[in-house]
Queue: 3 jobs
Job 1
Amino acid sequence: MNTLENIRSFWPRDQVFDFLIPDMPPDLDLTHGVILYLEGISVSFGGFKAVDDLNLYIQNGELRCIIGPNGAGKTTIMDIITGKTSPDTGSAWFGQRINLLKMNEPEIARSGIGRKFQKPTVFENHTVHDNLELAMVGNKQVWSTLTAKLNSVQQGNIEAVLETIGLKEKITARAGSLSHGQKQWLEIGMLLMQNPKLLLVDEPVAGMTQQETERTAELLTDLAGTRSVVVVEHDMEFVRSIAQEVTVLHQGRVLAEGRMDEVQNNQEVIEVYLGEENAPH
Amino acid sequence: MISYPKILQTDLGGSLLLGILMIAGLLVPLLNLTVNDTHLLHVSTYTMALLGKYLCYALLAIAVDLVWGYLGILSLGHGAFFTLGGYAMGMYLMRQIGTRGVYGHPLLPDFMVFLNWPELPWFWNGFNWFWFAMLMVIVVPGLLAYVFGWFAFRSRVTGVYLSIMTQALTYALMLAFFRNEMGFGGNNGLTDFKDILGFSLQSDETRAGLFVASVIALAGGYVSSRWVMNSRLGKLCTAIRDEEDRARFIGYRVEDAKLWVFTFSAVLAGIAGALYVPQVGIINPTEFAPLASIEIVIWVAVGGRATLYGAVIGAMIINYAKSYLTAALPDVWLFGLGALFILVTLFLPHGVAGLFRQGSFAFWWKKKETLTVVAERANL
């Protein structure tokens, strides 16, 4: 009897060993309506505080713009959310139950956070179709990837996304042959293929023509609602055209938060950021 | 009618390669065995062995093309996997010698008797069985690549740092195998083989069999590599090569993909080494030399990266030139190799295979390819 108890204490019947627990993020829990919690986040790089005790909450379905001068910590925040950088202090939760700080980049991506880089980053040697196919949600382990076959539902998804990003005619074109703006859209399309709940979009309209900018604005406003979208952008005109809520960062801290017109009239904001932006140049 | 294999439909180079291999695999042994020595069409056993050696090199080049051309990992140590496969085969061949060695010891190979070793080292056990040796041909290079890759890719070592590490790996193995205490015959390596599976290695028939085995291995290596590279994993490989971060941020564990393709490549290299040894009759630590591994990279660069058949072309051309020039103009060879590398880099960035793809006769094939793609989409 004693032996059995010893075994039980080593191997309790109601628990399993850690390594037996499947390596899967818990489901996204949005019962409080907040999709992203960043609390007390600080990071410093060699003494320079890139992010300083930052608190940021993103509502489910919201379209949020983050603005701020160079070095305000915008890209660093993206890095923290997506697992590229780990903060010195603070916590980052995706919904109520997913602890982002305990996951690596691919796990975070698979749990439902898509990220668009500042420089358009697509697989230039693949066709538009293959770019989307690679990004598609699904089992991304090596063996499944080796034996993966596109079924008609998935093909339908790819075509639907092509419709959304307006690259339907370019399906067999090499991604490298696309224009700058089209690459940006393709990258957004790749994020959509992952079926994310939260999209992080870093400077989507940098280098775009006026027309392309307008289409991108439309695209992003359409995406919000079913998904949450966080846009980091320098172009104030663009921010004005899409923003519902704006967060202004300055020196790694949140300087102001609110509706665009409120923020625009905030004296501090005008001093550090809008002032120089509005100055003729 | 048997339908044309799907993976070769858009692969002109590969189709030609497999066709040539099939013809060579039938014709060369036939001309060697059935045509009289004095006849014009006779293929000498020497030539057949030489061609067999090139086939092994071609398979090795495919292995390097997989990791370098498709995955962007410049491995300067693939010779290590090749040589390990060769040693596994060599150990089997040594154990087949039996009492026919110089010292006539029933169990110990000559070099162990010479070193006064009382018994067979433990790691030589099992190599008297062919199946065990073949298993080791796959397991030893594969395991080394897996362990090496596990550490290297997890710590995200890339680029030139990774190249230097692969170089150090093969160099370390070379130094280790040079030592007599290691039990692999020191700098003499393993040689003086007698027979394989009971067939004498001196006979033309066995030689022909080995040639055919090399043809089959190369064809199999080509088709399996093509299959992997045509799959979504293959697309992921080039994606990782071009934009590693993007691949990671769309949810792929980049290190896993690298690890498995690297291991697969090492296994191919090991098989190439195993077929190489009985055909050249010796395996020694100079095969581990970093220079040998760098030469493989040159074959691939000359032939054309990320095409697979380009690697085969490169390995064939350079090794033929090497056999010819080291005999005819031994002083010129290394300069010639260097010049060839520079010229190809400057004027043929896509290698010899690049010529082939841009060439006008690829036109009709392209047209066919487009039609196939259109037909496939229509079927969906």
Job 2
Amino acid sequence: MAREHLLKVGVSGVRGVIGGFLTPGLGASFAQAFGTYVGKGRVVIGRDTRTSGPMLTHAVNCGLLAAGCEVIDLGVMPTPTIQMYISHVKARGGIALTASHNPPEYNALKLFNREGLFFNQYERSELLDLFHQSQFTQAGNDEIRTVKQDLTTAPALHIDRVLRHVDADRIRRRRFRVALDGVNGAGSEMSVHFLGNVLQTQLEAISVDPTKVFPRIAEPRPDTLTELAALVRRTGADVGFGQDPDGDRLAVCDETGQVLDNDDVLALAVQRALTHTPGDVVVNLTTSSTIDDIAAQHGRKVYRTPVGEANVVEMMQAVKAAIGGEGSSGGIIYPAVHLCRDSYTAMALLLDLMAETGRTVSELVAGLPRYARLSGKVPFEHGRLGTLMQGLEESFPDAQTNRMDGLKLLWEGRWLHVRSSNTEPLLRLAVEARTAEQAQSLFNDAWQRLTS
Amino acid sequence: MNTALRISHVGLRGIVGQGLTATHVMEFAAAFGTFLEPGRPVVLGRDPRLSGNMIREGVVASLLACGHDVIDLGIVSTPVVQHAIQRLDAAGGIAISASHNTIDWNALRFFGPSGIYLNTAESGELLDIYHLHRFRFEEWNKLGKLTVSSDAIDAYLDELARVFDLERLRPLRVVVDCCNGTSALILRRMNDRFGCGFILINERVDGRTVAHTPNTSASIVELQLGPLMQPLQADAGFLFDMDADRVALADEQGRGVSEELVLPMLADHLLPQSEGKLIIANLSSTALLEDVAARHGARVLRVPVGRQAAIDALSTYRPEQIALAGEGTGAVMMPQFRFVYDGIASMLAILTMIRDRGQTVSQILAGYPSHHILKAEVPLTSPNIPALLMELQELFPDGTMDRSDGLRISWPDRWFHVRVSQTEPIIRVIAEQRDSEPRELFETLLDRVRSLN
């Protein structure tokens, strides 16, 4: 019954299934709108390892050249690496061709401004209007530039930036045994280099062949990283890292083969960041209260935003945050390196925390404030969304409410958050409480009200 | 800007940015990707126009999306693309080139298997797919792959070296105006590989600037090559358009040879060695062709103007029946070269002719009856062209009439042709006569066309 959104053209760009949906013509037109918006000048592009990447690259090149832009093509490259390169070469903007954690038949255009940051909401809606108006810059023969390739500068730049914010020698001395699942993604080669050569860990890597398709569900979560967990146990690794296809998200496996909750990974990174960096914390509404507790320990504030990396980044920029992220979806944003979600920064911060404290990953997690979390998806009929949300709010009159993104209801020590998916007619329900019983009871209660 | 975009049986062309956009390119290439049989690669090449960078990206994207592997030859002439299609056993190919148009134009030209042009039925199907917008885009795991090939010019030159005795041509002193196009790349390579010693002018290839309109007309030849021929003691001068499918000629004294004469010269050279005794030419080209054909027991088939009509006529004969096909613009197709317009091959054939005969260009031309051709363009204003043609027809009841493209009436020593251009809103009036200018006939025609139009 679920209407699958095979193509989505919206404020976050274009995403869709390759074939009849995300066509090369659409990619080119959107890129030409982008080129029209950012103006004639340099635009950086790069892609993850999807089979549709080369095709879409040529389409986007076509649109950008038609708008009079000069294209610098980084080839297969992690999204955060592309973002850092954009500001480094003073480009007018950039486009990453990646559907991030979505399945292999999808692809998408992620759009960045001249600072290598996600377009903010004003930029996004302006670009979308331009796209719909089809009033593109049309460069004539003498204004049409070329596509240049630069496959080597960006990874070195990225790694250098990360290393400035950790004690690399401390990490190297520990000679950690690290397991890696690169999902055959854009980070495959760079991660092997980063962990093996740069940080001199004893690396056990799987799925680091960028010419192959994704060997697992692309989103790094406990249930998709069973191979990584097995690798950790087999090799006795100190830690396991699971990336997504464009290298922005990271999931972590402890030394016992237990894949951490992504909220806990963020919590560890926040802990590490706040001991070294001034500033507050920005997370989305669905991120665990663990973050609030840690921030409180350091006397810092937590700002909450609607779900979506762009929203988090926008707020982080506004409040000059020390660190931010989106717990459930995995990934941390550490502005000292760059204001983007970056698995390399996450890996480095965690290894540095391990080296600094001498603790194992499971010990570090055990030291975090504990909450129980549950989540689920509820299909809803078109037109019923408002009624469902309203009903939920009225049935919990004692809760504090937040309507920034769907509905969040808060009590002391527990909360629930309901929001509609951007991509499917589904409600996402997330619940958190101090104990598993409390969480289950709140989840059941909400579930019943949403489905009855 | 009503002439900035043209979509027709010969493909897609227009002024980049002002009419021809990325969207047109991608959709037309997707239509071609849908039209071609899957399974074999598609060959791609482009002339040096800067807009070729943008168009190339769009064409590659659409072809890959349709599941075709693409072999990109880079900046090469159109005949090189056609040669590679056959050599690589490709499903077809696309040349990105507006050929003899000015630098701000560009175009997509489509070829089927073996590098031959699409006939009218095929190009009609392509146009229908384009207009329907129903493209066969493959799923994510069935997309094509791109390979870049840099040896296409050398492979093409290997073939030229098999057909022509390049060693024998070396003593000739030859000046070439490359018009800042792909002929520069090919001829430089010929100099390197075969010691040809071609003297090249306008040979800088940057895709931005051209020394002059890349048109192969006698007047441009005279302007560009005329002053150089005698000082350089050159035997012949040649001028190519951007993608080297057309050629124009200057004689050893620096006179521009009428573009009409390239085809009859080549006919005279090739007919004695050719099995086929048929020349395909359009209704507007010189009657010298009939004279030359008669000398060699051959005949001329006149077809409507435009490459499409010549291709359609070609496809109704066995290749061995045909000696030559072409038009009065310096575009000539030879059977040894898959019946594609190839300016470099035409040049080598003319140079071979000079060596074979031991004559200068002007001596060769002096051996032909002289025909005098007058051409004019009258702006098209009347919607009633059939009535105009009927009037003209009634005015000249004694000639042999051909109504397949406008009106052509011929007598033993003269002919005229009045037709509406397919590319511009003009009526073309052409009259030709043996030994002297058909001034009176021409003025009568112009009067009539102007008054009735």
Job 3
Amino acid sequence: MNFSAPFFELLRSLLPEFTLLGGALLCLLAGLSPTASVRRVTALVAVGSALLSTLVAASMSHLPQSGPGPVDLPELPTFLKIIIGLLGSLLLMGVAKVPDRLRQVLDAENAKPFVAGDDYRGEFFAFTLVSMAGAMLCAGAGDLVWLLLALELVSLPSYVMIACSRDDGRAQESAIKYFFLGAMAAAIFIYGFALMYGATGHTGIADIRAHVQAHGVSNLMLAGVALSVVGIGFKIAAAPLHSYVLDVYEGAATPVTAFLAVIPKIAGFAALILVLGTVGWFPSKDGRGVTALPPAIWSLLAVMAMASMVIGNTLGLVQKNVKRVMGCSSIAQSGYLLLGLLAGPALMAGDGAVEGSAWERMTVHASALASTNGLGALCVYLTVYGLGTIGLLSALGCLVDKHGHDATGWDSLAGLRHRHPLLAIIIALCSLSLMGLPVLGGFVGKIMLADATLAAHSSLAVVLVLFLVLNSAVSAAYYLRLTHVVLLGSDNNQLDLLPVQSRRVAALTAAIAVLAMGGFLAGPLLRAANRAAGMKTVEMDMQTVITSADGR
Amino acid sequence: MPTNWILPLQMLLPMAFAGILLLPIKALNERKIAWLYSAFTSMVSLGVAILIAIRFDWSNPGHVQIPGEFAWLPELGLRFSFGVDSISIALLILTALLMPVVVVASLLEVKHDMRKFQFWLHVLEAALMGSFMARDLVFFYTCFEITLIPLFFLIAQFGHHDRLRAAKVMFFYAFTGSMVMLAGIFYVAWWGYQSQGAPWSGQWHWDIESLWAIGNTMSRTQQTCILGAFVLGLGIKTPLFPFHTWLPLVHTEAPTAGSVDLAGLVLKLGPYGLLRFAIPMLPLGVLVLAPWLGALAVIGVIAAALIAWVQTDAKKLVAYSSISHMGFAVLALFAFDKGSIGATGAMVYMLSHGLATGGLFICLGMLYDRFQTRDLDRLSGLAKIMPLWAFFFGIFAFASVGLPGLSGFVGEFLCLIGSFGGRYDPAAVAGLPTFLGMAPELWLPKVYAVLAGSGVVLAAIYVLHLLGRVAFGPLKRPFFESTGEHGMDKTHGHDLSSRETAILVPLALACLLIGIYPKPLTAALEPAVRGLCATVNGKLDALNPAIPASTVSSSAASSTAPAEAP
Amino acid sequence: MNKTLLAALIPWVPALGALVCAWMGTRQTLRKFSGWACVASVLASFVFTCALAGNGGLKEETKFTVEVFDWISVGGLQGGMSYLIDPLACVMLLVVTGIGSLIAIYAVGYMKGDKHIGRFFAAVALFIFAMTTLVMAKNLLVLFLGWEGVGFCSYLLIGYYYGKDSAVAAGKKAFIVNRIGDLGFLIGIFLCWTVFGTIDIPEIVKQAPALALTGGILFTLIPFCLMLAAFGKSAQLPLYVWLPDAMAGPTPVSALVHAATMVTSGVYLIARLFPVFEAVPAALAVIAVVGCATALLAATIALCNNDLKGVFAYSTVSQLGYMFLGLGTGHPEASVFHLVTHAFFKALLFLTAGSVMHALAGQLDIRKMGGMGRHMPVTKWLMFLGCLALAGFPFTSGFFSKDAILAGVLEGGTPLHKALFAVALLTAFLTAFYTFRLWFTVFSGETKFEMGDEHHAEEGHDAHHGDAHAHEPHEMPWWPMNLPLVLLAVGALAAGMIFSGPITTAVLGHAEHLTEEAHHTHQTVMFISGAVALAGIAAAFVTHAWKRDLSVKIAAAFAPAVRVLEGKWFVDELYDFAIVKPLWLLGQILFVLDTVLIDGLVRAVAAIPGLIGRLNREGQGGRMQGHALAMLTGLALVAVFLLYALHAQAR
């Protein structure tokens, strides 16, 4: 390892992650403070550092290549980091008061002598930030080892977050489940990584890609990629490794559930893009498009997508607990999102390197970009999915029943509009968006996914789109149920509101964003995502391959 | 000013009025004030609709006028683009006319949450206006889909006993169908996107004109499948037999306003969408499916009419009659006679059905306000105590029977005569035998028209059954143990109040006006309809090269017709 | 006034009158004048008609058309609100408005004191509007407007006493049965549109003869479809069942709508489009046979009917059968002639029957009447004149017109025609018999009566007549009731002699020139039918006036036959059993199928996702080992899938 300019380039590209880690350190320090008022600041510090890292990431977006990242998609890491930062800030606002409800914390607040080990607060926020940092690292990973570590960095803190989110045996139980099953999944994708290394002799993603491009895909490589895809499927809650989702989501505190449903999913999809990029999406011979994934991998993904949709949506019909329903929704939405991967990236039309400020680059006119890009659609849909889920679960997290338990049963939610109309409207909006009702964000996302899938022009594309729309129809059953339970149910006098302003603000922000994503905000987001996911032209691509091969 | 403000205004005003209902204004919590507010705002909408009608150049009714668009997602080709021709404008006016009517009619029925009720009504109005003026298929689809939400809440919150189930059934049924339609829309757009060399290739187009052109480049099989998807989505709304089973349930449970809007406006989205989008876009598919759709429509006409006859719930009876009536419209829509009489008739019939069935539902709602029942076995001879009510009820009943001089007849007659002269693709009906010396494509439409014509008799049977039970016969009112009265509260069967009369008069006048002098309406609709049917008609003209009308009957001509088909 | 305006005013003045009547009916003070408003509008219409007729309307050469406004015109289909004034229309208009005026005047007296008088007269005026429209229509669509319009008014008027179930049911039946015919009419219009490319009546009439040979099946079907319509409206087999029930309406209505005018519109329709029918001989034969059969059937039913208005109703059916017989044998002029004379004497009969009924507080059962002549001498003799005409007593109007038809039948010359002639003669005998059976039963013999109980108290007649009459029948006042009857009676006696020539000329378009042979036939027929009528009257006199117990004995001897006749051949029951009940049952079955099968299918499809979900949930035990197992199973499946995919790829 030499301290050459590229190394500093690399470090500089990791600035958002460093910001988060710095924030985590600050949180740990503040959490150790004996003064309650200082401890109370930790949440603020966490949110602040998340927002700061978003800004940092955004400020770096004008750089031609801000890190190793997925080969040929130089702007994608930045985009994903921004999304992670923004959604993470909302999530942090949502989780802000989670530790406050724990017995130890309450004891500490109630003038019992301060014992550092009893107070979870600092660690909790630090873990959250670290997990986000892991997700960002995933987005920018350039090496299988790096990717592996980043993925684990996403997961490990989240185990702790779940366990310490509630004073409830179920939280610990689900943390354990998540941990063990996650370890198993990690074993699967590590094995997959190992096979990939064995097949190509490289761990650098660009190297593997170059190798595959030069020598074709060996069966060993296919097996490696397949195992990796399946293993990472755990992170995104896709079939067949989906079965933990319902239990784990139910066990965690509601805002933490939101975290689980969003951040690991983004990280997982970032990782999947990297892994899949090693065996496909090469610039095609005529230079006008990209090649498809190997048929085996493509069909594996297709089956995973369809299975996830069907399993998630049908399971959602028979759940009695809203958080379990959101688990089902998470599984099904992963199915939709996988369509974006199936479609793959598109070549960036015209000159890829538009100079100018970040805003100018984001709003560059559409004609310069390919209008349908599977990965772009994936990015957009990830965003609207994340917003919808955060809004819904944060709003849900504001509610407890008479006994102080989370209000997650259908009955206990009934008549929310009498208690808190705004929360009811937020829940309704978010669930309708997740359902894909027009002019909400989810509809735009689904249109993009369907367009991209169809544009990829596969014989199965029509079937996949049919699956998408029919599953949306099935999912309507539980999303609509959520809507009418909160808006129409008669008041059962069981709901209490938690005094957590930030969580409400997070929910409201997410809901407004969901609304806006269907309308005027959708354009910039779409353009940014398509830019980020647009592949460079052939010449540039070959250049990169050559340089990275030389650098070794 | 490139974009004329008035059309978006027609859609945005109701939204804005709905938005005001959401603001924290104390006064609007008052039932009466919310009601008055809404009555006023819906009149404003009506005023805008009239302004549009004035602004419209009636000398060129088939031409799309007052166009405009707002960008939505230009990258994906999504635009809020709008414009009206005479069909759109007729439906806009119907919407704007029915809205004040249902608002005013809701005073007695809505006992709580008047503000929410009016909110959803405004949202529904906005969505309907949007769908009728849309020039972009996704925009249409969006509005089409959004109508479900206000309807869902109107029914689920203000309906009768089993309201939630009814609302859900309505939502899921319609949503599922429209999702399939969405898949069809995607397919067409994709077909344009991937096609080589066409002006639209490599881009997503959703505007009607492009989609028409794209659809026409597809093969017969593709068009048939896509049309199937459209028929599923729009046929469920229409409702076309056998996708109709949601309607009776929903009508029985819905509040009056919901029923009126459903029957009068929302059902119209089906035939309207088919005519506006599917028929010009998928002419080959239309040729294949038209005989089948005709068969479904005819079955619907007869079966629904017979079922209507045996109902004991007056509202269910009218609901089934709606199914039967819309069968006429679908049959005529897919007849494609030479002069497009059938399709024009279908549009007239839709308008008339909106007025007459809407009127019937309002009348039944007034009954329900008074007696808390619509059971035909518990009510009888109400003309004795409510003569004015019976008068209006009779007008709407006979308008829906199709009595000449009232609106129903014009549409029904044109539908039937159009269907009788209908033309089918010989290839699509090749398997059928000759009948009366006529080739199948010649006798099939005639047989359809005759069978559907029997619906005219059946309509008389069930409507007179309804009328004879409720309005005429010996007086019978339900007795309520709780109040010890015949009828509920203080309202046990007084005749119409002036408010109620004011609701019914415009509807009845409209029925009468269309019945006596439909010329302006048909003259305005005809060019627009003919334009939309032109592609299919052109194909049929090519299939049956000019058989002179007077020799259609001769077996010589009929036997040569299929031979000339390619 | 120019002729165009005159023609346009004929229907539209009564339409306005209907509005005025309806409005007056809602005003307490104006209500009692609404009758006069109606009379004024109908009378005005009559005056306009007379002016038209005097202005050359009765001449073929001066016929003209009037375009009032464009009604329904789409895609080449021209359905303007246009009128055709030719001699046939003029004759019909004169009958409709003339007799309509007389009946309206009578009704003012008859309905006096009724609470819903406004509704009644509005419907009557509306009826005149519809009927004149029907008669003047230049195209089939406008004709259909009038056709349905009169049916609608008939529905309103039959169901006038809507508090009675029977009246409501009768109105319903009339409308629905007519609708069956109307369906035929509609299909007829469609066929005309297809075959001729127009629905303009003069155009159709012009083209029809040319198509007789080349028309093909669609052309052949036209007369059959239109025939169905005519059978419905004019109460012929198999659609006659509504007319007897229609007597539930107020009696002036029975006279106007169900005897004089509306029911003859079927005859008018066929006469109007006669060339189309002429071009299809089979159609004419069917019409003749149906007409003849109806005439006989209705006459037999009338034999044993004990309902005052019922007998006249069946006799109307029977006489309409005659008219169809005339049409079917190719003599529309004879049919129209009979139509006109029938309008006079049948209106007279109904109105006098109405007087009797009015006097007896709604009593209709002739078995409960007798010797009424002593209380109501004027009515007695007026009805006698009507009966004479109906029976075809020599030199009354009915005699001439019936002879014209009979002679026409005989002129046909084929065996079929001979058979028809025989049946028609038999019917003529029966007609004379049952007519006078009724008259003798009611007006001669011992005085006996039972007051009816139905609508007087309810409809407020008492207010007008006072209590005294409630137990005692009384004569009707001359004005406004008996005087119009006198005019009708004059018509019933003299119309035959006066109108024979003009009507024939009007319908045929030229004066009739009888051949020597035909003239001979006519004279023979006159002699035979006169004899038959006299025989019938004599038979009635013997059995019902001279030796009343004879009738009882005869009835006892033919008890089963009498039971069948009293049961009206049980046609209603048959229809109920064979058509109505099965349809109702079909409706129920379809309803069940709809809810169980179709909706069940929908629900089954909707249940599939939930079912999958439930199956899926079985794997969600909550135990970690279970999850691990599920995941590894999934992984194994992926491995298998992958191997398969690779295998497939390798191949």
